[in-house]
Amino acid sequence: MPHQSGSIKRFILKHITKHPVDIVATTAERFHVTRTTVHRHLSSLVRGKQIVKSGMTKDVRYYLSSTFNRTVYYNIAPDLSEDVALRTGFEDILKALSKNNKDIFTYGFTEIFNNAIDHSQGRKIVVSTVCTGDCLKLSIADDGIGIFKNIYNAFKLDNIRESVLQLTKGKMTTDPIHHSGEGLFFTMRIFDRVEIKANHLYYLRDNLIGDWSIQSESAPHSMKKGSMVIMTLNIKNIRNLTDLFKTYQHPETLAFDRTDIIVAMAKFGDETFISRSQAKRILRGLEKFQHVTLDFTNVRLIGQGFVDEIFRVFKNRYPHIEINYIHANADVEFMIKRSF
Questions:
Q1: Which homologous superfamily is 257-338 in?
Q2: What is the model's pTM?
Q3: 112 compared with 53, residue with greater pLDDT
Q4: Which residues contact 172 (CB under 8 A, 6 or more apart)?
């Protein structure tokens, strides 16, 4: 039996590329074993990260892990386009993914690749894909000015760290004529995990556990030059782009008219949210939306000036904008309700 077990696994590894859909039937017929036996060996190879299982139930396909691993280099030139780069360099990966994950991979690739072409001011782009277990990691890097510095310069921010906050809002772009500012917003929310490295800053958003972090200066993951966006997707994921778009769009006009802000991201160091200037960091650009949700997770205390600037001054200036808040502790909620 051990000898046959090894033979079955070797057969699977040798023939899986030509039989991604029917490898179970092909192997069962070759060795005169049950499909359950073949599935047991396939599961062992998946756990050992030698093969990848993609799709669910009737759409299940199996691939060698190495199928997903590659690095492709591009020179930024007038004739370089994201759709051609995707089609010529990664079409086989797209074919291996389920429809919803194909859409997500395509969206993240094209949006971030195009951003590198149009905004990086760099000369080269490097795209890498690596599959480990069930996780497919897509990395797009350039050698340009850096995404955070670009935002910092364009909007004359007081602190480069604020660039991270502004990028997470949506509709923040240095080229509003040609870009809507939606691409990175939705990319950060549809993948399981997104990391952005640039200008000595490292931003991590983990959508599986609802967590985030920003590290600066000496962070081991940060980059001095250029930008790198790393998008991680579980290939068994069942989320889809359409549902995400619906969450942030007007139900009738379908316009991207709502956003959510993690308030704690506006904090620099150990400061407390007391002043109007701190509130203005959060409010910057929100006049472009109709619905805004402020997430006060991990915000211990807020001051009267901070509250007044958001819930009275801004609201009076833009009465058509609906402002909601979530995850406020008792002290924060008390201060907010005082302003009504």
A1: STAS domain (3.30.750.24)
A2: 0.87
A3: 112
A4: 151, 155, 166, 181, 285
